[in-house]
Amino acid sequence: MSQQLIPNDDFLRHTLNNPTGLSPCEFRLDNGVTVQVWDTGVICFEPATAGDKDIVLSCGVHGNETAPIEICAELVQDILQQKLAPKQRTLVLIGNPAAINGGKREVEENLNRLFSGHHSKGAGLINDERKRALALEQYVTRFYQQAPNGTRKRYLYDLHTAIRGSRFEKFAVYPFLHGKPWQKNQLEFLQACGVSTVLLMQTAASTFSYYASNTHGADAFTIELGKVRPFGQNDMNRFSEVRTSLRALVADAALKTQDFDEANFHLYEVYRSIHKQTQDFKLHFADDVENFTTYPVGTLLATDGDTEYRVEQEGEALIFPNAKVAVGQRAMLMVIPRSVKGQLA
Ligand SMILES: [Zn+2]
């Protein structure tokens, strides 16, 4: 049955062959799992008896970040071929099929800056990324709202790879919780995924993970799994922990977690966000500097017309530097170490 609807059970290929849309369809696997295709890159799995978790896994929000796309495609194919039996409701999203086909981060606009209604601000729904952001919000809403009654936990793990290398290969962005405590079990889950560097945000954002966290109360993260590489050039062994942990989560199998110990983590908060003010904005370090690089206090980081940016704090580290952003956009984030002692739930 599924062979006719999703050729070779290859939902990624099917999505990329139909980047602008797919007709909804539904079928049931022999193991009782209901499969629903909602759209291109949108597939929902409902076990006959669902557990208490509603899990969203997303990849390809940036089209050239291939490793997460391969991880999710493998997971979906294994479910369709009944090599992996989901015990939790699971929605898998391939964010930006047109950008994936183009081998590009985005076609017109950064999809991960368009959530929480930003897709409709300013000029409105003028391009495909803006329309996709709105549609993805609607699919996530539908998925969480269609859950059975009872006490349930919502999750969204938005998987990425970074443009540049990182002093800590894998790291997660924990969206701003508006004063609510950070979740110890989520830090433990991230560690099981091989992610022990976490950036704790202190402001609202237009990202997919902040949207799921703030709008739906999900435990949600942007997870950066390493450096961007083309399809087929990812060393999948580098992702074995995240693959294993996501599959265990979906299958409700035992997770290899350890009790949280802050000494095993690198936790950071944002110290300041540096925005490009003029066309003269210039970074004063090598183009290929790694995320989380630190320099001595006083080191010149960037100039922007007459403005100089220097390291102000001991341990201040830079992430996501990009001098090519549009004027007015964030060109770099500066972070400092912080503790979560006494602030976990
Ligand atoms: Zn990304």
Describe what this molecule looks like in 3D:
The protein is α/β, with parallel strands linked by helices. The protein is globular. It is 23% helix and 26% strand. α5 (128-145) runs parallel beside α7 (208-216). The chain binds zinc ion (ZN). Zinc ion is lined by residues 62, 65, 160.
What percentage of amino acids are in beta strands?
25-35%
Overall SS class: alpha/beta
Number of strands: 16
* Secondary-structure element series: HHEEEEHEHHEEHEHEHEEEEEEE
Bound small-molecule species: zinc ion
Distance between the termini: 45 Å
Helical amount among residues, as a percent range?
A: 10-25%
EC number: 3.5.1.96
Enzyme class: hydrolase
Catalytic activity: N-succinyl-L-glutamate + H2O = L-glutamate + succinate
Family: Belongs to the AspA/AstE family. Succinylglutamate desuccinylase subfamily.
Question: Summed up, what is this model?
Answer:
This protein has 345 residues and is α/β, with parallel strands linked by helices. It is built from 8 helices and 16 strands.
Keywords:
Aste_AspA_hybrid_dom; 345 residues; SuccinylGlu_desuccinylase; 3-stranded antiparallel β-sheet; 13-stranded mixed β-sheet; binds zinc ion; single chain; 8 helices; alpha/beta; zinc; 26% strand; 16 strands
